[in-house]
């Protein structure tokens, strides 16, 4: 015969186990010295270190010399503790917007000018509304942080852009002095054109409604535009990759194959140049590691 006390203890153990499963998961402790790059994991709320970052060297990013210099200068001022602007990198796809952010961060740290390395934190667009929680973690740190959101844009029913506006400039506390925000987007105003037009056509005061939507992009002090590259810029990118990775191909052959590749893709960009380089290296049996 089962002892009633043992049966009760068993049920209590099962109840405790069930309650523990319902309890929120305690986030791992964030160690900001563990890496120079992190990804913000909004649920449960910690910074996951990234030890191997997917990026290219800044010298390999061609055709955007002017915006590259502006971004590096702004980043260096921020790392030095001087005033710097939030940056919106917008424009043609595949022209190296996100690559330039990661490469600039790496170049600043590689310079060895600063006592503490600059930290790069990627936040996903769908986690923008958790920015206040992330900023509360960062503001007391001795490090300086670039918050980076790739392919930032907002859809018709998305109101999380209001959280971003407040975090950038409009909140009571404002943006912490050790944090700056870099974002890339194909849209200069971050919102679809038909969304802005709809606000204009349906609002009681159309100009105020549009201003409320468009004012998000005004929170970025620097707008860096990326435009479709010329054939010469595209070939310069291809030649730069070929030299860097020591791909032994006759110049005329390289030019002809690169142009044919761009024609089949229907576009010329840094991304297309890199994809051609990967194909060429594969055919030559060469590695692109390092």
CATH level 4 superfamily of the largest domain: P-loop containing nucleotide triphosphate hydrolases
Describe the largest sheet.
7 strands, mixed
Secondary-structure class: alpha/beta
Helix/strand order, N-terminal first: HEEHEHEHEHEHHEHHH
Question: How large is the count of helical segments?
Answer: 10
Question: Please, could you describe this protein's structure?
Answer:
The protein is an alpha/beta fold and 290 residues long. The protein folds into 2 domains: 37-226, Rossmann fold (3-Layer(aba) Sandwich); 231-284. Helices cover 46% and strands 12% of the residues. A 7-stranded mixed β-sheet has the order 2-1-4-5-6-3-7. The longest helix has 19 residues, at 4-22.
List the topology elements.
Layout: H1 4-22, E1 37-41, E2 46-50, H2 65-79, E3 87-91, H3 97-110, E4 119-122, H4 131-138, E5 145-149, H5 161-170, E6 179-185, H6 193-202, H7 206-218, E7 222-226, H8 231-244, H9 251-265, H10 270-284
Parallel strand pairs: 1-4, 3-6, 3-7, 4-5, 5-6
Antiparallel strand pairs: 1-2
Helix pairs in contact: 2-3, 6-7, 8-9, 8-10
């Amino acid at each position: 015969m089962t002892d009633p006390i043992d049966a009760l203890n068993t049920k209590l153990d099962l109840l405790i186990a069930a309650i523990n499963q319902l309890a929120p998961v305690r986030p791992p402790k964030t160690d900001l010295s563990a890496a120079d790059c992190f990804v913000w994991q909004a649920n449960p709320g910690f910074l996951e270190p990234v030890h191997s970052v997917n990026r290219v060297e800044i010298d390999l990013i061609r055709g955007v010399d002017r915006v590259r210099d502006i971004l590096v200068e702004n980043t260096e001022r921020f790392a030095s503790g001087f005033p710097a602007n939030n940056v919106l990198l917008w424009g043609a796809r595949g022209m190296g917007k996100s690559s330039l952010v990661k490469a600039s961060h790496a170049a600043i740290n590689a310079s060895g000018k600063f006592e503490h390395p600059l930290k790069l934190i990627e936040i996903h667009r769908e986690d923008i509304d958790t920015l206040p929680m992330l900023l509360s973690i960062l503001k007391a740190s001795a490090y300086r942080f670039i918050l980076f959101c790739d392919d930032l844009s907002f859809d018709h029913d998305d109101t999380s852009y209001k959280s971003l506006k407040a975090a950038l400039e409009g909140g009571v506390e404002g943006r912490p002095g050790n944090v700056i925000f870099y974002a890339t987007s194909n849209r200069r105003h971050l919102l679809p054109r038909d969304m802005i037009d709809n606000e204009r056509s349906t609002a009681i005061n159309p100009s105020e409604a549009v201003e409320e939507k468009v004012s998000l992009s005004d929170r970025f002090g620097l707008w860096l535009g990326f435009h479709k590259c010329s054939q010469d810029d595209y070939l310069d990118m291809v030649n730069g990759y070929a030299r860097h990775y020591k791909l032994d191909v006759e110049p005329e052959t390289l030019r002809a194959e690169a142009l044919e590749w761009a024609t089949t893709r229907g576009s010329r960009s840094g991304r297309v140049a890199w994809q051609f380089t990967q194909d060429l290296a594969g055919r030559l049996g060469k590695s692109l590691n390092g």
